[in-house]
Amino acid sequence: MNIQLLIVVLLFAGALFYVARMAYKALFVKKGCGSNCKCGVDFSSIGPDKK
């Protein structure tokens, strides 16, 4: 196996990993909307502390 083929295979594997990781994050990892609106935060354990 020559060095050029090895470089191409490594680049292809890296690109495939990158695309698969992006697809996984887009489909399966959802922890709120991510826009600082606090819509995914549970405030049920916080009591009103007005002083």
How is this structure best described in words?
Helix content is 51%, strand content 0%. The chain has 51 residues and is mainly α. The chain has a domain at 1-27. It starts with a helix and ends in a 23-residue tail after the last helix. The mean pLDDT is 80.
Report mean pLDDT, rounded to a whole number.
80
**How much of the sequence is in beta strands?**
under 5%
For this structure, the quaternary state is single chain
Query: pLDDT under 50 segments (min length 5)?
Result: none
Question: Per the principal axes of the C-alpha atoms, what is the gross shape?
Answer: rod-shaped
- Tally of alpha and pi helices: 1
Profile the largest sheet: none
Secondary structure category? mainly alpha
Number of beta strands:
0
Radius of gyration, whole Å: 22 Å
How do the helices and strands follow one another from N- to C-terminus? H
**Helix percentage range:** 40-55%
Query: End-to-end span in angstroms?
Result: 74 Å
Protein name: Attachment p12 family protein
